[in-house]
Amino acid sequence: MGLIYARVNGSNKKFDNVVVTPALLHIFGAVDKHDLFNGKPAYPDGYAQPDLMPVHPQNLAEIMGRSIPISENRHEVARRPKRTMIGPQTAQEIAWTK
Asked: Domain range holding 76?
């Protein structure tokens, strides 16, 4: 059982989907891949493309990593679902892959 506290008013449906999706993925076994205090994505599983060289800036957010890593100390919240992806670790946790 889960409870999501979110303000959904219809004016920003794309961002609302980005907020709600990780909560729903928790139901299927996905775990957070970001620091709970500052929201910074955890490397490597919280990065959409951890093998990218150089690693920063990233273009996408791993959905459970919450935001797009721009530099070592800067990250931006993904505001649209098309700026996110499900990474390999999350895919395994929700049984999309073995």
From this structure: 33-93
